[in-house]
């Protein structure tokens, strides 16, 4: 098959911080004629009619009205990851363009990272590493302690696929599991992980040693955890966020940490990402931040790419789209 | 209560670098008359007869012939933690002194440390943290990708109570579990965690994505993991050590990590602790070192002291000692 026969797919850029990976490009180019934004902008006249799909990696290229208007033959936008809060679904739909994401393939990696952050925070792993490698360290003090994960109480806010997988893992650490969700899970699911439903989020916040956020970002979950919620938490509690930065009122979080209203935080997501370099969260000893690596394993990113490719191919062929996001 | 009523318990020091934790003192004083090494040395004549028990914290005070000879009424030495490699068990026994460790208190906490290191290494958490908080690090996302934990193969070397608790945790991550141990566990126990016995360590090393070392340090396990063992491991594999530094041939480990023989290592223990500040292990990007976190939680340390007190009181009352350690 010659390059020209392959469908034209728009991507943002290749390599660098958030570009499409070189080895993924190699694979994708067997099926698509990839056009970067730079190439597109240099040759809009010729390319705008050709582009039939957008491959959105790490929320880029940004889809706005201008772009949609200039791509008359655009059929589908495939977005990496499970979150779709960065997409104006109504707008895209109004142009007759379909949308897909990659919901299931990210679940276990994200649950694993939630557990990694909880353990690292509780046992002070990052601080410990710094002590272990610091040029000033002469001995390891005996009274330098962390807090136990085994047997503690974990409150999961958002018991979707990812939240439930966190519960399955936490159960093996003999943790007591509370959860808060829009809908209650069924009895079998609850008893399989020993999870207790908290209809009111307050009950979960007041009893948990660890509060893990695993919700989608929607208008309802925007700033779900604010000053009030943080004050309901135990002063010995840790907040873990693997969903979206905007689910937490970040300024309220800074204040809560500074005033010891809660003990610590571990955040894979912030708003914005990355935070400005002078942000107080970056300097706090009791805060672990990771650069949105929830699904960042070689294998999962590869699967995400393959899923997106399948969705695009189905969309272009007029077939049912795997992982389609409906309004 | 006066000095004469409670049995004397010798400890190295209270507080300070490696001393008994301040939070434990009140509990200890309920049962014992506490004597620090400093007080003992300042008033040997009077103190030496009072000491009926010694409570070791972070391997101190050092138990040698001289000390044993100077304590005629010593009945028992209780060790905090489970490792006994710092004690000459035969020497102590030759003085008719009993020994005990604290296995129950340490297992969950140490298993958690093992899992914390496994996850942090696999997901490159420390590197990620540095990128997230640095003042302006350029990086390529493709270069910071980690390896999956869910569904990977974990090889546990040493399936005692800590190793078994690790297997229980790893099972929840849908890991495929292999184990190597002096003795095979019962079939029921294997089935409960889905663990497959590897009679030869080689089989485990060749198949595991994560190798977790959880053995006691003995002459047999000294440098158990050396050049040969690391070369048997997959180049994509991670070595996690939560036992004792001397179980791993550290020089061979440096070479293996630098030449890509294995992917990464996560070490809660080294030899010595801490490592000299110019040691290569401190500089390698694919190594996480932690300061012997094993049991370093408020809960676990307190439980250790409770378990030690239980052992000491049993010994002093001539009752069976719950966690007695006999010289092999």
Automatic annotation (TrEMBL), chain A:
Claim: Membrane is one of the keywords in the record = no
Name of the protein in question: Glyoxylate reductase/hydroxypyruvate reductase
Record's superkingdom?
Answer: Eukaryota
Family assignment from sequence similarity: Belongs to the D-isomer specific 2-hydroxyacid dehydrogenase family.
**A GO-annotated cellular component:** cytosol
Q: What region holds the D-isomer specific 2-hydroxyacid dehydrogenase catalytic domain?
A: 22-325
Which keywords does this chain's UniProt record carry? Oxidoreductase
Which InterPro entries does the record match to this protein?
D-isomer_2-hydroxyacid_DH (IPR050223), D-isomer_2_OHA_DH_cat_dom (IPR006139), D-isomer_DH_NAD-bd (IPR006140), NAD(P)-bd_dom_sf (IPR036291)
For whether the record's keyword set contains Oxidoreductase, the answer is: yes
Q: Which GO terms describe its molecular function?
A: glyoxylate reductase (NADPH) activity; hydroxypyruvate reductase [NAD(P)H] activity; NAD binding
Please name one Pfam family that this protein belongs to: 2-Hacid_dh
Domain D-isomer specific 2-hydroxyacid dehydrogenase NAD-binding as annotated: residue spans: 115-294
UniProtKB/TrEMBL annotation, chain B:
Q: Residue limits of the D-isomer specific 2-hydroxyacid dehydrogenase catalytic domain?
A: 25-325
- UniProt entry keywords in alphabetical sequence: Oxidoreductase
Task: State the SUPFAM superfamilies in the record.
Answer: Formate/glycerate dehydrogenase catalytic domain-like, NAD(P)-binding Rossmann-fold domains
Task: Outline the extent of the D-isomer specific 2-hydroxyacid dehydrogenase NAD-binding domain.
Answer: 115-294
Cross-referenced InterPro entries? D-isomer_2-hydroxyacid_DH, D-isomer_2_OHA_DH_cat_dom, D-isomer_DH_CS1, D-isomer_DH_NAD-bd, NAD(P)-bd_dom_sf
Q: Which GO terms describe its cellular component?
A: cytosol
Q: Quote the Pfam families the UniProt record gives.
A: 2-Hacid_dh, 2-Hacid_dh_C
Drop me one GO molecular function for this one. glyoxylate reductase (NADPH) activity
Report the superkingdom from the record. Answer: Eukaryota
Which family does the similarity line name?
A: Belongs to the D-isomer specific 2-hydroxyacid dehydrogenase family.
Q: What is the protein name for this chain?
A: Glyoxylate reductase/hydroxypyruvate reductase
């Amino acid at each position: 098959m010659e390059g020209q026969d392959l469908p034209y797919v728009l991507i943002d850029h290749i390599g660098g911080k958030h570009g499409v990976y070189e080895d993924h490009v190699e694979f994708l180019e067997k099926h698509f004629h990839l056009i970067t934004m730079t190439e597109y902008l240099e040759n809009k006249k010729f390319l705008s009619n050709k582009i039939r799909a957008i491959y959105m990696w790490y929320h880029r290229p940004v889809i706005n009205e201008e772009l949609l208007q200039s791509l008359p033959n655009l059929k589908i936008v495939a977005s990496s990851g499970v979150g779709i809060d960065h997409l104006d679904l109504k707008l895209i739909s109004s142009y007759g363009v379909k949308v897909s994401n990659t919901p299931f393939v990210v679940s276990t990696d994200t649950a694993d990272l939630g557990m990694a952050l909880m353990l690292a925070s509780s046992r002070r792993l990052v601080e410990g590493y710094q002590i272990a490698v610091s040029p000033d360290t002469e001995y390891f003090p005996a009274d330098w302690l962390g807090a136990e994960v085994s047997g503690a109480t974990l409150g999961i806010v958002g018991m979707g696929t990812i939240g439930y997988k966190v519960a399955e893992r936490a159960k093996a650490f003999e943790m007591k599991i509370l959860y808060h969700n829009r809908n209650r899970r069924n009895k079998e699911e609850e008893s399989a992980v020993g999870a207790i439903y908290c209809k009111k989020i307050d009950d979960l916040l007041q009893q948990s040693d660890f509060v893990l956020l695993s919700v989608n970002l929607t208008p309802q979950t925007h700033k779900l955890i604010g000053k009030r919620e943080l004050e309901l938490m135990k002063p010995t509690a840790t907040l873990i966020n693997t969903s979206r930065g905007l689910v937490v009122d970040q300024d309220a979080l800074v204040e809560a940490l500074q005033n010891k209203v809660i003990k610590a935080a571990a955040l894979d997501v912030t708003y914005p990402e990355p935070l400005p370099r002078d942000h107080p969260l970056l300097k706090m000893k009791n805060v672990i931040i990771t650069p949105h690596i929830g699904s960042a394993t070689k294998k999962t990113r590869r699967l995400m790419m393959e899923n997106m490719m399948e969705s695009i191919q189905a969309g272009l062929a007029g077939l049912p789209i795997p992982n389609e996001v409906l309004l | 209560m006066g000095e004469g009523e409670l049995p004397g318990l010798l400890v190295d020091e209270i507080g300070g670098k490696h001393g008994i934790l301040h939070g434990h003192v009140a509990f200890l004083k309920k049962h014992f008359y506490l004597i620090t090494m400093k007080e003992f040395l300042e008033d040997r004549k009077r103190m030496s007869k009072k000491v009926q028990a010694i409570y070791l914290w972070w391997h101190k005070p050092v138990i040698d012939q001289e000390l044993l000879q100077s304590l005629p009424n010593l009945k028992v030495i209780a060790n905090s933690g489970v490792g006994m490699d710092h004690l000459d068990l035969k020497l102590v026994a030759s003085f008719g002194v009993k020994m005990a460790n604290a296995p129950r208190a340490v297992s969950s906490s140490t298993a958690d440390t093992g899992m914390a290191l496994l996850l942090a290494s696999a997901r490159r958490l420390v590197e990620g943290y540095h990128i997230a908080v640095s003042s302006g690090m350029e990086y390529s996302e493709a270069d910071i990708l980690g390896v999956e934990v869910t569904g990977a193969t974990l090889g546990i070397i040493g399936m005692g109570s800590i190793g078994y608790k690790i297997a229980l945790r790893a099972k929840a991550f849908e890991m495929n579990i292999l184990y190597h141990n002096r003795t095979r566990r019962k079939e029921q126990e294997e089935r409960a965690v889905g663990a497959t016995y590897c009679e030869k360590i080689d089989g485990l090393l060749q198949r595991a994505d994560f190798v977790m070392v959880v053995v006691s340090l003995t002459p047999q396990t000294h440098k158990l993991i050396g050049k040969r063992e690391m070369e048997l491991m997959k180049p994509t594999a991670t070595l996690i050590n939560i036992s004792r530094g001397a179980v791993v041939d550290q020089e061979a480990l440096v070479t293996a990590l630098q030449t890509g023989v294995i992917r990464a290592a996560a070490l809660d223990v080294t030899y010595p602790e801490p490592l000299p500040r110019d040691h290569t292990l401190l500089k390698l990007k694919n190594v996480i070192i932690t300061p012997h976190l094993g049991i370093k939680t408020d809960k676990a340390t307190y439980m250790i002291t409770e378990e030690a007190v239980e052992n000491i009181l049993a010994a002093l009352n001539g009752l069976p000692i719950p966690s007695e350690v006999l010289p092999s």
